[in-house]
Amino acid sequence: MKKTPIQYLFVMEVNNITIVNSQGKPRTSRRTLSELHFDCEVRSLVCLQDSVLAFHEHGMQGRNLKDNEVTQEVYDHTRSFRVIGSDRLIVLQSRPSLSSKSENNPTQSMSALTTAPFSSTPCDLHILMGHENT
């Protein structure tokens, strides 16, 4: 099996993504951007052929690599989402949002990444389809 060298890395910082080459310099291309900005705090990324899906606590936002335009968006403040697989299929786990409970009790601050409370609540699993040609 022949391995191809990594051409680009996606560097994530809160809600900005910078695409760099193997030397750490921003990618230069006439066809695609080297930086993307999202409207949310990005927790996970899934790179597609012509876009990037950025997952945040309450959903997902997709951006086109050519013009940074929003291509897809899902937002549900009543649910907390977490990417649990993105090899061939994108699999998400969702649970009722804990942030609404935290607003009523300021001493109880939990996030979707907190393992103990998140794992003790029943969850739903979602398989994303149609995000690219297969």
Automatic annotation (TrEMBL):
Region (Disordered), start-end ranges: 95-115
Domain CNH: 16-83
Xref: InterPro entries: CNH_dom (IPR001180)
Pfam families in UniProt: CNH
Name the record gives this protein: CNH domain-containing protein
Organism: Rotaria magnacalcarata
